[in-house]
Automatic annotation (TrEMBL), chains A, B:
SUPFAM superfamilies: Class I glutamine amidotransferase-like
CDD domains xref list: GATase1_PfpI_like (cd03134)
InterPro entries, sorted: C56_PfpI-like, Class_I_gatase-like, DJ-1/PfpI
Species for this entry: Methanosarcina mazei WWM610
Protein name per the record: ThiJ/PfpI family protein
Pfam families: DJ-1_PfpI
Residue ranges annotated for the DJ-1/PfpI domain, each copy included: 3-129
Length: 132, 132
């Protein structure tokens, strides 16, 4: 994943200010992994997986929604953790050892997850609590 | 999944002649699972999973490509089987116990799988061999 301008699903331009390879995860307080088609690419980026492992190893706040937990499967950090996700990947996180729950937001220590955009209010609420 | 007209990704109309719930898998010689966004929906259809289990239990021919193996993860039939898939779901089939190989086509008895549309020639060739 490179620095620079990228186009979102609905045509909006987004300025990416840093590439995964240039991120020092020590500088960040929370990791937020959104959904859509991105996680299937992010999970193939070894630097993104190293960043993800850092947050879990240091027990720092992590929030993942929809397809976001695909990255957690690839980083090998979801086993034994309470989590939810987009229903289409439910069986994948279960196969990877997650303790799946069908709730708008699932809280497991410093890790929160939600199922879909319909859950964004609860997801945002619990994510912010992690930073307090 | 219902009988009737559906629209494909590129706008083509497809006439679905039978719903999963009305399929008697005994009447069919091969199960072919294509990729794209379909498998994330098909894997949530209990009738589709029963059809899939029938083919594996009876050791009948199965061919899956791209995201198709997501259905095999949900049907619980991929553990211990040699397989390949779209690279974005590679870690999911590995978590589910598949013996992943990065090849244009992977043959494990009566089960063949491929990675992407670029592999279609090899996929079709081996699929047809299963029917001979």
């Amino acid at each position: 994943m490179k620095k620079g301008k990228i186009k979102g699903k609905y045509g909006y331009d987004v300025e990416v200010d840093i590439a995964f390879k240039d991120v020092n995860p020590e500088d960040y307080d929370i990791l937020v992994i959104s959904g859509g088609k991105g996680p299937e690419k992010m999970r193939l980026d070894k630097d993104a997986l190293e960043i993800t492992k850092h947050f879990f190893e240091k027990n720092k706040p992590v929030a993942a929604i929809c397809h976001g937990p695909q990255v957690l499967v690839s980083a090998g950090v979801i086993k034994g953790r309470k989590a939810t996700c987009w229903i289409g990947i439910r069986d994948d996180i279960i196969a990877a050892g997650a303790l799946y729950e069908d709730s708008e937001v699932v809280i497991d220590g410093n890790f929160v997850s939600s199922r879909s955009p319909d859950d964004l209010y609860a997801f945002g609420r619990e994510m912010i609590k992690l930073l307090k």
